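User: My instructor asked us to take a sequence, write out its structure as tokens, and then describe one feature of it. I'm not sure where to start. Here is the sequence I was given:
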Amino acid sequence: MYRHIPLLIIILLLSISVSRASLLSWDDEALRGIGEKMARREYSGARESALRIPTGPARDFVFGVASCRLERWDEAERVLTGNADAFPLLGDFALFYRARALMHLSRFDEALPLLRRMRADYPQSPLARSGDFLTADILFRKGDFQAALDAYLRCVETYASGNDALRARYQAVLCREKLGDREGAARDLRGIWLTYPGKDIASAAEAELTRLRSAGVPVPPYSGEELFKRGCTLFDLKKYREALATFSLVVPDSLPENLRGKLAFRSALALFRVKRNGEAHQALARLSSPDSPYPEYRDEAAYWYATLLDRMGREKDALGIFQSLAETRPQSELADDALLQAALIRKQAGENREALSTLKKLLNDYPASSTAPRARWETGWILYLAGEYPAAADSFRALAGNPEYREKALYWLGRSYDRAGSRDAARDTYALLREEYPAGYYSLNIEKETGSRTTLIPSITPALLSTLPLPSGFERARALVTLGLREEARMELASIKKRKGASFRGSLDVAALYLAMEDYPYAMGLFAADPPRQQDPTTPFIWAILYPAGFRESVSRHASAAGISEHLTYALIRAESTFSPDALSPAGAVGLMQLMPATARGMSEALTPALLHQTDVNVKFGTRYLKQLLDRFNGNTVSAVAAYNAGAVPVQRWRTKFPSLGEDEFIESIPYPETREYVKKVMAAAEVYRRLYGTTSGEPAVAPSSGTQRPYSSAGASPAPPSRPLAD
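Assistant: Let's start with the prediction itself. The structure tokens for your sequence are:
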């Protein structure tokens, strides 16, 4: 595979110890220290450490990469000269980084042969793609624009997707302009702006088009259909504000007649999505009216108009429209959805009998509807909360055959049996639930209540993963891990997977490599689809991978300082970021505990998003924020966890609305689906962490809130029954 690795080196590598302390054959503590600094992105520190130890192939390689990271191009080129021969195991990386340094030094004719050699000597290198793009960039900087254009176009043809391919398209445009083809450049820029509206490159293309227009280059105007298509792409990408801006440029009469209604409807729906309620109300009312200019969109517009009215607090008006749509247009694709929404409005208003009647109609008239499982669930839940346990059991039993609902259907079926006095049926149902979902939220709830415990979850120590042996293969990946080049190690592993067409799923060897990089998300992903179902020698390791005690020192110190549970902290981190310090949500939440910058600044004005990516800083303020929420809700873990996801104000509102529900009932009644599932996920994980790692020193118990909030108990008081059965 790699032609210049002598047989002797391969033999030596295969005989290397695979302890985590030494992934390579070197015993040089200083070299490993350099790797640790590289992994922490402390490139200046890594460089300074490298300067203090004797030269050698591995030292020179990592020194050269550190110099590249610091843009000390002269130094990097000098140190990496000859390194591909001295350190052939990672020779392709040495060639690539030296070529990059030479490009920045404008020594283009020296750089290009290195990339050709990399291609020839390491044909399966994970850097092959990057090398092709770097070749094109070198040719561009050299001023050989025709060769650069050809190289960029080859990249686009070879690598059709990815940000680097988009950049190559843009660079090809610049080549055309340099070659004097300004009209061709304008044509391609125009195509980029139309075709890739969700990408940053579209903004760059727009700026270049403006410049070319100012220079007198003719740029054809966009047609209505082109703008409409661009707006639809933005809409499908959920970039609704940008879609609206594009739709506003379209003159409806410029479109074919069959597209004008779609433009009007999508514009109205985009207004709905960005919560411009007044404008959305006007647009949807017009489209859904009897004299709608586009009757083919009347039903859809009516559905969304009703949804908007519900959002605006006009539930009765919304209910009337949903019911009318279902009654007058029973063959409509939206009739079943309209019935479900009508039932939910009835339920929200406390009109349970009417809600049940509507749900029954939905199930009778549309038994194959995609909404039928939700309707069956809502039926069972209304009946359960009303104390109609036998009827609720019927709904949950019917729902248990649906894979999406099976777990919670079994749980509430068991609860219904229990409340109805059918203890044997409840016991059998719980046993089935625990067998199928041993580490699930519902099974763990049952076990906590009954005092039982599955034997599947072992007791382990947080240090267990450090004893996981590293594989004897994967020499290149192991070398990159040791030297702190984690991104390169991931590239190498991805290349192996792609090249061999092999799945790493369930591989402890590959997991060990990811864990050596503190790359918990990748390691967890190897086992997420197949959690342990039986005990064997690998089971403890798999549990530790799925529920890692990652960043243990920071978590232990800051959880203790805040006076909160380590297990709960780990569970939150697992749910929020899967232990990825670089995690960044679309909403802007940052780091391990996904803190919003505004929330963090409320605790310390000095906190910036960059600081929040630092593990210790993020955990310090994340645990502090969690403690604030626990204090606000009298130590009630469920409320605090829900507030961590949805905010404290909605949670307080829900607690006020559901004052007499048990904790499991309250969780199931949370109106926000994301928050509801988030709470279950965190509560279950916290319990698994407790069972795996035991009670930590000084860790206080988090008690449920007092007063009206109570943990569920099958011996507790049932909700007050209605004056007459709802299931009549």
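For the description part of your assignment, you could build on this observation: Residues 7-214 form a domain with the Serine Threonine Protein Phosphatase 5, Tetratricopeptide repeat fold (CATH 1.25.40.10). Try explaining in your own words what that tells you about the chain.
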